[in-house]
Design brief:
By secondary structure, this protein is of the alpha+beta class. The protein has 4 helices and 14 strands. The strands form 3 sheets. Strands 1, 6, 7, 8, 9, 10, 11, 12, 13 and 14 form a 10-stranded mixed beta sheet that branches. Strands 2-3 form a two-stranded antiparallel sheet.
Length: about 250
């Protein structure tokens, strides 16, 4: 968590430094798309867009590509959708489903943030974070390209769920009170005057990387923390404006 514009993590002073920690070894990456139960249901029911939905998020949820959803519905710009719009969801086998006649309101709370200077919607990149699995997945054009072990917020400081976008990027942030460096900062949503985001494992004043043993379980003050190597890959892969979907 960082205070917007000037502070980081519990009100600590933020600065940008050119040096970065040495990279860790890579974690295992998964490149095959994972089928979901939702994709099977979509073959007969379709989907009605709800408040907070994004087209890329819907594609990820049903295990199909963004381009196939756009093609099946004659959509040219994935940002030009609206609540209540009925979608045809293509099945993984290539068949097209019939849209559902009705859909109830979403019961999940969701938030939306739009980054200024956002990336082209045609970039097709999406970050999906599962709080339940403590995993971060990266998708490009509907295909999973990275899977990373993550840590979300502790109880009482839980990471918010919803649809967001990468709204700030800093090579490294510094928490002066704790003398901790936070490499590869990507801010995604505001919490009052603070900002939560995705960043690498913190580094103390002696150059030691911390919290590595905590990855895979809630450990942060609300941010999503991933390994240093993974954070460097994600930071360089995801441009400003990349959609970030957080679900339990």
């Amino acid at each position: 968590m960082r205070r917007i514009a000037t502070t980081l993590l519990l009100g600590l002073v933020l600065s940008i430094t050119p040096s970065l920690a040495s990279a860790e070894g890579p974690t295992v990456r998964i490149v095959d798309s994972q089928a979901t139960d939702a994709a099977t249901a979509a073959a007969s029911s379709g989907y009605v867009i709800r408040s907070g939905d994004s087209l890329s998020g819907i594609a990820v949820r049903f295990g199909v590509s963004l381009s196939s959803v756009m093609r099946s519905n004659g959509i040219r710009n994935p940002d030009r959708i609206y609540s209540g719009q009925r979608l045809v969801i293509p099945s993984t086998g290539g068949a097209v489903s019939t849209p559902a006649p009705t859909a109830g309101p979403s019961t999940a709370s969701s938030q939306s943030n739009t980054a200024s200077g956002s990336a082209s919607p045609d970039s097709g990149k999406t970050i999906y974070i599962s709080i339940g699995k403590q995993r971060l997945f990266a998708y490009q054009d509907g295909r999973q390209v990275y899977s990373m072990i993550a840590s979300s917020g502790l109880p009482g400081q839980a990471t918010a769920t919803g649809n967001f976008r990468v709204k700030t990027k800093l090579p490294e942030a510094f928490a002066s009170l704790w003398s901790l460096r936070m490499p590869y900062w990507m801010g995604i949503y505001d919490v009052g005057s603070y900002e939560n985001g995705i960043h690498a494992l913190p580094i103390n004043k002696w150059g030691q990387t911390m919290w590595g043993g905590l990855l895979g379980r809630p450990a942060s003050f609300g941010c999503i923390v991933i390994g240093t190597y993974d954070a460097s890959v994600l930071y360089n892969w995801a441009p400003m404006g990349t959609p970030v979907i957080i679900r339990y």
